[in-house]
Each structure stands twice: as C-alpha cells, then as structure tokens.
Amino acid sequence: MSQLIINNIDDTVSKHLRARAAEHGRSVEEEARAIIQDVVGLFPPPALPSGLGTRITTRFHEIGLSEREAAAFELPGEEIKPAEFD
Predict the structure, then answer these.
(1) Based on the structure, what is the number of domains in the chain?
(2) 35 contacts 26 by C-beta, under 8 angstroms
(3) Which residues of 11-31 are buried (b: 16+ CB within 10 A; e: fewer)?
(4) 21 and 55 share a domain?
(5) Could you tell me which residue, 46 or 65, shows the higher pLDDT?
(6) Domain range holding 63?
(7) Same domain, 41 and 61
(8) Both 3 and 36 in a single domain?
(9) What pLDDT, on a 0 to 100 scale, did the predictor assign at position 67?
(10) Following CA atoms 6, 10, 30, 24 in sequence, which dihedral angle do they give, to the nearest 10 degrees?
(11) DSSP SS3 for 14
C-alpha cells in the first residue's frame, strides 16, 4: 500500500475532519481514508454502525439535519432498556 502525506491543511479543515472522525467513531486517518475512497469510488466506504438513531436520521435526511445534529440521536455505549409502564 502507498502512503500519502498532505501538508499545509487549513486549521479549519483539520478541525472539521477531527469532528467528523469523532462522529463516525474513527481516527482522523481512517476518516480521511474513507473520504478519499468514497470520492475516488474504487472501494465502498467502511460501513458505519447503524443504530436506531442513524436509521431515523437517514429516513428523515431531507429535512436538513447536519451530521452533528443527526449524531445527537445516537447514544453509543448506552444500555438498551425496555420501557416501563406503571
């Protein structure tokens, strides 16, 4: 495999890449690799976890939720508990 080093990345771009990586539960390197693969179109990007919140936001994507807003529906690491009715 090849290595690619990219110099002089704008601080704002770097900040957004870090945030995007965190939203997807990836390292910055993994996120950059997934973005490049997706744009080039040679390999499908790695599948992201598809919890209930992800499925809801995918279904209602056309209302214009940002990725950050959509991530609010996910609660990674939270235990699923059945509803309690008194």
Answers:
(1) 2
(2) no
(3) eeeeeebeebbebbebeeeeb
(4) no
(5) 65
(6) 47-77
(7) no
(8) yes
(9) 72
(10) -170
(11) helix
